[in-house]
Amino acid sequence: MKSTTFALLTAGLFTQTVFSAALDRRSEGGVLTTLPQPHSQIRLLHQHPKTTTLLTTKRQSTTESSSVQGGAVLSTSSNKKITHVSATFIVPSAKIPTIGPTANNPVGVYASSFWVGIDGVTLPATNSSKCNAAGASLRLGIDIFYDGTFGGEQTPFAWAQYLPRSATGFSNMTITPGDLVRLTASTNGSSAVGGTVTIENFGPGNNDKSANIKKMKALQSASHTFSSSPDAEDGKELPALCQTQASIIVEDFPLAGMPEFPIALANFTRVEYGDVKIGGTNGQVLNLVGGSRKGQAQVLNIVQPPQGGRLTDCSISKQSGKGTYGSTNGGGGVVVCERVVVPS
């Protein structure tokens, strides 16, 4: 058993708080890189890690802190509810990072999660916020894994979740790296409670970005509906959504059963979310860039100092012509995230 001590730098004060974690085999600065015992297919805990910030520096003009979320989020006012979010992307392969503190560990465990949904993004609180959009979320995603102790790259895992409830898997879906998938989250009409998520898998080889996805036929599809009835998990009804965030996210979740730290982020190289569609109440179409919602979308990046600093380079670009996968409207942008290591 090996104990690792971390320094927590907070509020600009160079004071140290001892934070210890005992992990079998190998850990990197509070980042789980290997599993403590033999195991089957690993799974992620789709919740924020209990220790999301190992290093935080605050300045007067800006606030730089650890973050487990990258991608983009379109925020709206409380009187303009988001009712529908969908995006299409090619499932990346999970590889060992080649640079940074978690690089080149042949027995390492790495993962990345890619999800689309309504709400669920942690943003700085504002005085005008009457609803905590990070508290409840309707979302679905795909996790990719690399486990050096279990044969390398593992089978991706497709999941659905109504946060704060636990995620559930799409048991009838088979996802492989290179598949083109579309993720869709929609609310239940005018209700702020519950909703339906749908995953469509168009299979490998459908990566011609000039192709129109409307003319493609999904090889597999599955849906899951979350109702407003009391939940079996705790007997309580689902919490209401704020419906103020359209979220297109790459996330560094913790490992199931080990909620303390985010897992070492896999090298996914690049992911590109296209065919983005965001709908609001009364049939309103919202855009990531351009149009009446110009400037409202915010770019996010994963920042984990124990893993080397900033781990993603995300951006939003405006589509032109057919755009990505034939989309010409209903989102107005492409979200791209590349895996990097940039010291923070």
UniProtKB/TrEMBL annotation:
Keyword field: Signal
GO molecular function: glutamic-type endopeptidase activity
UniProt record, GO biological process: proteolysis
Protein's recorded name: Aspergillopepsin-2
One Pfam entry name: Peptidase_A4
SUPFAM superfamilies associated with the record: Concanavalin A-like lectins/glucanases (SSF49899)
Signal peptide as annotated in the record: 1-20
InterPro entries named in the record: ConA-like_dom_sf, Peptidase_G1, Peptidase_G1_sf
Active site per UniProt: E251 (proton acceptor)
